[in-house]
Design brief:
By secondary structure, the chain is mainly alpha-helical. The chain has four domains: 47 residues, no CATH class; 70 residues, Orthogonal Bundle (Glutamyl-tRNA Synthetase, domain 2), CATH 1.10.1160.10; 57 residues, Helicase, Ruva Protein, domain 3 (Orthogonal Bundle), CATH 1.10.8; 90 residues, Arc Repressor Mutant, subunit A. Helix content is 52%, strand content 5%. A two-stranded parallel sheet has the order 1-2. It has a two-stranded parallel ribbon with strand order 3-4. Helix 11 packs antiparallel against helix 12. It starts with 14 loop residues before the first helix and ends with a helix. The model has no long low-confidence stretch (mean pLDDT 92).
Amino acid sequence: MDDFVLLKSDGVPTYNFACIIDDVLMKVSHVIRGEDHLPNTPRQILVYEALGFELPEFAHLPMILGSDHTPLSKRHGAVAVSQYREKGYLPQALINYLALLGWGTPESQQLFTIEELIERFSLEHVSKNPAVFDPKKLEWMNGHYLKSSLPEEITDLVIDYLKKKGLLPEEIDPEKRRWIERIVRAVGDRLKYIGQITDYAGFFFTEEITLGKKAKERFLKKEIKPFLKEVEEKLSRLEQFREKEIEEIIRKELEVFKLKPKIGAQAIRVALTGQTISPPLFEIMELLGKEKTMKRLEIALSSL
């Protein structure tokens, strides 16, 4: 080995010296790091021995690569743990996924509790091959943990997320909370992480919506105006604005105007949500309420 530098000319210690002193003072017993540190380990062992320090156990993990098999970087979507938390990923899902990057069990088990990971993890089963970070697999795994959670637990997470986004006030009364829980149940298994609540149900929490250009061009055409006008008029007469009554009116008008649901119902969906994908239409109309539904239909009609 070369005669490597321990102190720079300005007196600042180099990594290969500073990390040893740091680890010794903190009584570190195991140094586990990426295989890119393999060249540093023999040098550090020499310094440990020269200073008379007891050697820790050294282990080196395979590198984590992006989907193109180059070292993971921000262009692959690699971000800080705090950003995953802000998006609404669950801690247990992230820990589970990270544990499987370069490590596994003989039976290729994918889902682990923290207790199982503590019990089963061993360096002997760490792969020598680089691991590939797959955001889609992490999303799938987080979705699994969300499905396993109670609606009440997901509602709490959704409320916290929407508060941080400024879409909900700090104080939520019991009635409002029940309404949000109904929205969470309506969205159902679509959520892969909490941040997607604004993708599937953001229109519930804003007064005005933006009509997607493609959705508007495809479904809100001039020829749909008579149908929407009739639906608006019939809905305005409802005293009880409930899912069952709403569905009866819309299905009847679809028959009268000889429209397929994927045309007529989709036009209503776009008018109310601004998008083509949402929870079930009749359910979201009840959850939106009569006043907001009427207002959005009126805006859509005036734009035709």
